[in-house]
């Protein structure tokens, strides 16, 4: 080796040694001399033997969703309770026991759990009894969002509050759900999985029907009363329905053969349970009974109300309490109709992004790089590998959409269908890439454009936590979107434990513009019909079926408001009914 190279190598070694020595000195001064890599604590598992006395806690959704989910847990043999809707006191507790710099949902949900456990302690339970007899079940995630830190934040706050060792189970966390040995405490059977699918779909549809009907109810409070009754009917069905088994359903002559062939028994049971959970007479009958009960609510659709589409961060746009300034109730008090977002959209989004991400990585992960056009086997091997990843997601997405829309049809077919994720991605693409992860991704932008260009609402209200990185990123893009679509009314609101008056004030200002937009739309439609409002009301009074809550009004392109849509429809009915002549028209003729 030349002398110059030896000198250069010795010089580099000496520099690196000095850097290492200085780094060690600085670490020692800062008290970091003994740094250790963080390791997730080993948590006691939830076993099958504990199922009879351990209560599963969950929360964070609307009361409609939570009642349905709780019924499925109970029907599957689990003890389960939902934690009450978070309030400001929970937010303060989350800040007290948790880390600084967390987002709004973290403080509310973490503080909500801590205060619930404290209430159990106040009722006389010891902390050991609480830790042994309760577990918390929630969702987990990863990616550029603090949602991925919720699990660690729960553990940290629980430890600070004196409940160190309390178990937190995640949907994506297999170690917390399956026992290290023996039977798992939470077993995902076909009945449980299909029950959860039905619970989420029913929660979504019932939730939308509430906000669709309540602004127009003739008798104040009737919608809430009927929905409470309907939810009880559905939860009783989910909880008490008989579990289907192929040996009970099969004819006697076939049972011995099925018992001998376990593979046929397993496949037959799985398919039969799916059909029974979705198409069974007991379940469908409960849907129809609730549909008829809801349909009997009397409504007045000629009340002019602006339609406000809710978007934003998942939790902030879903919760119905202090976590979003009680925004839905406030909007209704201010004379608006709220168009909520179903949880089904979020699930469809996750499947779509997973599929498109697999397509984007297909070249890098291919078995054979750049096969020639004539290398058919290599090309087919690459395609087969990609299909294994995307085929199941495509089938799952199609099934999810089908079951959701089927629930809508059985519940009156007036709730909105899911927007195809491909369409949302296409509309958002000029502003936001579909694989830019975090929060709702491209959906906030895509929904804003979709509901505006298709005239499905008068205003879009985006609710998101203060300091939420994905939503802040989205809001930066929305300024360009608003500049392109001049007639768009878009208002982003950051939610927190404080500032409710200021947030409501900002919404009121934007709402005034939306109300003017809705009124102008209604007046324009009324002028086009050539009929007066009294003429329309007279016809509606003569045809009571038009006052039914689930009467389906045909959608008219370019019209967003319920009152305007209904006025145009009633006018069409009057034009077809040549025998009908309104009294006001007779008076004018005389």
The SS-based structural class is: alpha/beta
Mean pLDDT: 87
pLDDT < 50 stretches: 173-182, 585-590
Note the gap between the termini. Answer: 117 Å
Q: Major sheet: size, sense and barrel closure?
A: 4 strands, parallel
What is Rg?
29 Å
Relative helix content: 55-70%
Strand order of the largest sheet: 2-1-3-4
Count every beta strand, where a strand is a DSSP E run of 2 or more residues. 8
Spatial shape: globular
Give the DSSP E fraction (strand runs of 2 or more residues). 5-15%
* H/I helix tally: 23
What would you say this structure looks like, in words?
The structure is a single chain. Helix content is 57%, strand content 7%. The chain contains 23 helices and 8 strands. Strands 2-1-3-4 form a 4-stranded parallel beta sheet. Strands 6-5-7-8 form a 4-stranded parallel beta sheet, sandwiched between helices. Helix 19 (469-484) links the parallel strand 7 (459-465) and strand 8. It is globular and about 105 Å long. It starts with a helix and ends with a helix.
